Please model this.
Amino acid sequence: MPASASSLKLRDRLVTAARDLTALEGWMALTMSKVAKLTGVSRQTVYNLLGDKQKLAETLVMNELARFLEIVDNAFEPRPDRLRDGVRMGGQGCLEYAADNPLVREIIGASYGQESELLKLVTTDSAMLRQVAVERLYTHASGYESTITDEHLRSLCDMAVRLTLSMILSPEGTPAQMAERVAWFAQQVFEAPTSASPVFIPAA
Model:
C-alpha cells in the first residue's frame, strides 16, 4: 500500500532531523530516541518509517548523493561544448559542496576513528552509490560524439566518479584544482584516437 502524503512528509522530517543530529553530535552518538525526541514522535514511529540505523545510514547517504547529482545535472545544463567542461564544472561544484557539508565532514572524520555505517557506504560498500552516480554521468556523457566504445565510455564515467569520491574523502588542493585533474583525465580518454591502446576497464 503506497505511503500517504502525511507519512512521506513526516519521514522527510525524520530524515532531516537525523541529518542535523549527525552533523551536530556525530553518527556514533545518534539514536532513534534522539530523532524521536527532536521531532516529537514515538521511537516506534521512527523505526516504522526509517527502519533500523543501517537503513537510516543508507537513506542519509542516498539523499546526499541526490544533491551531488543535482549539481552534476546543473553543470551539464545548458550543455557545455565539451565533455571536459561539464566534468570540470560538475566536479568542482561537488567538491565545493562537500567541503562545506557537515554530514560529509562527519563521514570523513569517522575514518580517523571507529568505522561507521556511513563511512562504509562511501568506501567498502559504495557499489550502489557509485552505480547511481555513474549512470547519471553516463547519461550526460553519451550525448557527446566520441570514437571510444560505449563500454569504454561507461568505464570512463566509473573512473571519474571514483576519482571525485576519493578527492572528497581525501582532498589535496582546492576544489578547482582537483576538478581540473578529473577533467583532464576524462579528456585524455574521451578524445583518444581509435588507434590508441585499449582503455582499462575495472573488474565489476
Notes: The chain has a mean pLDDT of 88.
